[in-house]
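Support request, please re-run this one:
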Amino acid sequence: MADASGSLWAYRDPQWHGIDLSGFDVAARDGSAGRVGETDAEYLVVHTGPWILRRPAILPAGLVDHIDAAEQVVYVGATKQEIRSAPEPGAAAAPDARMRSLLADHYGPVRRSA
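Re-run finished. Output below.
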């Protein structure tokens, strides 16, 4: 599990690490999943749902399939429901060890089926 979890937290293309994805739309396998809020070398915080019901979801960088910088869209290998049903982060966006473990359990099967 540690190996799958480690690859889950790294972008497939190292060049993507240098792109500021804040504000980009998130295109899930089945449509729009929200908009990128904060970013990190290992994850994106996606704000899902309409603005009044919006909730943050952490999306590991390894689920990013493609980035279209010109159109400002991040394509990910997860469905809207998989993103929206992810464990909700606490007040701090950065996932701690416990949250990383929960997210690895949640997204691990998604990553393997991609």
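The mean pLDDT is 85. The helical segments are 2-8, 80-84, 97-113.
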